[in-house]
UniProtKB/TrEMBL annotation:
Pfam assignment, any one: 7tm_4
Organism classification: Eukaryota, Metazoa, Chordata, Craniata, Vertebrata
GO CC list: plasma membrane
Keyword Membrane recorded: yes
Cross-referenced SUPFAM superfamilies: Family A G protein-coupled receptor-like
Subcellular localization: Cell membrane
Organism: Neotoma lepida
Residue ranges of domain G-protein coupled receptors family 1 profile in the record: 1-138
Protein name: G-protein coupled receptors family 1 profile domain-containing protein
């Protein structure tokens, strides 16, 4: 909440002299920055730094926990149990990768390196596709 409040208050202080049509599915900060005629380079750097804290720290914790899971799975004596655990974990880690990969690219890579069309497609990954895949993964795990 603190991060979103700070980013929103800063974003609202920029001047918008170009088109006020947001070429995005959502009214997100990177899409608004493209409409601004102010110098946003320092703010984009701050956005990347906050992305490290908000995206990379949880991702690092998830990867660390999966490292412990992998070690536990490799210590299992049953090949069948190991295969079942790898199947479940691989689908989970795929969804985590899709979510965090899209979010990292969207928020940590400078806007000049991707187009509005790419931003729209990436936002679909972390807002629509990964939540849709979660029930499917959990139903596969329960079989």
């Amino acid at each position: 909440v603190l991060n979103a409040s700070i980013q929103t208050s800063i974003t609202l202080n920029f001047s918008y002299c170009a088109s006020r049509v947001v070429d995005h599915f959502f009214c997100e900060v990177p899409a608004l920055l493209k409409l601004s005629c102010s110098d946003t380079s320092i703010y984009e750097l701050a956005l990347s730094i906050s992305g490290v804290l908000i995206l990379m720290v949880p991702l690092l914790l998830i990867i660390t926990s999966y490292g412990y899971v992998l070690r536990a799975v490799l210590n299992m004596h049953s090949q069948e149990a190991r295969n079942k655990a790898f199947t479940t974990c691989s689908s989970h880690i795929t969804v985590v990768g899709l979510f965090y990969g899209a979010a990292v690219f969207m928020y940590m890579v400078p806007g000049s390196y991707h187009s509005p069309h790419q931003d729209n497609m990436l936002s679909l990954f972390y807002s629509l596709i990964t939540p849709t895949l979660n029930p499917l993964i959990y139903s596969l795990r329960n079989r």
